[in-house]
From TrEMBL:
Cytoplasm keyword on record: no
Family classification: Belongs to the APS reductase family.
Protein name, as recorded: adenylyl-sulfate reductase (glutathione)
Function recorded in the entry: Reduces sulfate for Cys biosynthesis. Substrate preference is adenosine-5'-phosphosulfate (APS) >> 3'-phosphoadenosine-5'-phosphosulfate (PAPS). Uses glutathione or DTT as source of protons.
Any single Pfam family the record assigns to this protein: PAPS_reduct
SUPFAM superfamilies the record matches: Adenine nucleotide alpha hydrolases-like, Thioredoxin-like
Organism lineage string: Eukaryota, Viridiplantae, Streptophyta, Embryophyta, Tracheophyta
Catalytic reaction list: glutathione disulfide + sulfite + AMP + 2 H(+) = adenosine 5'-phosphosulfate + 2 glutathione
HAMAP family xrefs: CysH
Subcellular localization: Plastid, Chloroplast
Keywords recorded for this protein, A-Z: Amino-acid biosynthesis, Chloroplast, Cysteine biosynthesis, Disulfide bond, Iron, Iron-sulfur, Metal-binding, Oxidoreductase, Plastid, Redox-active center, Stress response, Transit peptide
Domain of life per record: Eukaryota
Amino acid sequence: MALLYLIPLINPKTLDKPHLPPAAVNFSRRHSSVKPLNAEPKRNDSIVPSAATIIAREAVEKVEVEDYEKLAKDLQNASPLEIMDRALEKFGNDIAIAFSGAEDVALIEYAHLTGRPFRVFSLDTGRLNPETYKFFDEVEKHYGIHIEYMFPDAVEVQALVRSKGLFSFYEDGHQECCRVRKVRPLRMALKGLRAWITGQRKDQSPGTRSEIPIVQVDPVFEGMDSGLGSLVKWNPVANVKGDDVWNFLRAMNVPVNSLHTQGYISIGCEPCTRPVLPGQHEREGRWWWEDAKAKECGLHKGNIEEGNLKDNANGAVHANGTATHADLFSTHNVFKLSRPGMENLLKLENRKEAWLVVLYAPWCRFCQAAEWSYVELAEKLAGSSVKVGKFRADGEQKAFAQQELQLGSFPTILFFPKHSSRPVKYPSEERDVDSLMTFVNALR
């Protein structure tokens, strides 16, 4: 009888390496004998080249499909340390901690305590307080790590400042500045990951964070595999009170940002952050000139639920108690079209310019997830032969959109060629900028 022997595959590179028990593994990445997969030790390496542009791996891990809603319920009573360990164990080098330079340093301490290799990235907007920059350096030295900094695009920042000045957010809201300085760099960072870890807590913001789960499929951003559902978001301290976080930091003798001793609790960019008075909620120190119920910069926009969303830049609720919703795709490069405007587009057979139009509903989570890609596409097409528009197609307009505009589900994207009245429907579920631009270039 022939015998079949199953021989495990062994990486020859590991034959010469001694096995280290967990207790022997140094917690930090700088001095650790055990490095995360594809780790890049150089300070000037961004999170993107260390994860997103790897051409080949020694081994390709196939991640099992998991029900994250069930996992969130299973971990509801777990400690932050247990949750952190679970996240790092599951995703290895494809997960990173998002560090803002505030009390979320607790995340780094928890990761350190697991004994596992871990990565940390931060968004340097160019407008942070000097104390925050000093704190970054202190954290790096304390834990022996290199924070992977992400920066905004210099050309975009220059265009924003030249056209609107340094403090336009005081007049027309913080979303545009945050989109350039924070959201787009974050999007680039997350495209190199399969999961990320945040310091969100339910008690941080009564209007936007009261329902955040321990772990979830990210409703807004995409990971390295592209498409909605390709990124997992972990919130290990979601159920922890702010006072308990501070008790933990003191007990573990963790370094903290010196701004906290000056009355700052929630810390962001210098022009948009101020100390709070005793008895004030911590988020009252952020964007204090705007509605207190919707203080998100775009990094956690998926938190904003129905009833807390707004119909304009700063939010509104009707007198009868009916909540309105934040409008989407709000930029000067996207034209808001009315019902007569759409009817005219359908009639014109010889347009001077082609049009790309998104049919959307502000309450639709998929529309919210596509917002930044569509806005970025509009900026790329600005000044070209293609105009970019939006048409709100829910409510009274839904029947018209279904009958005349091929609306099946939200969002639906249509291209109106210059010499044809019949629009072409974008057929793909891929709504990243490159896919949308390929569609436009194929038709214009």
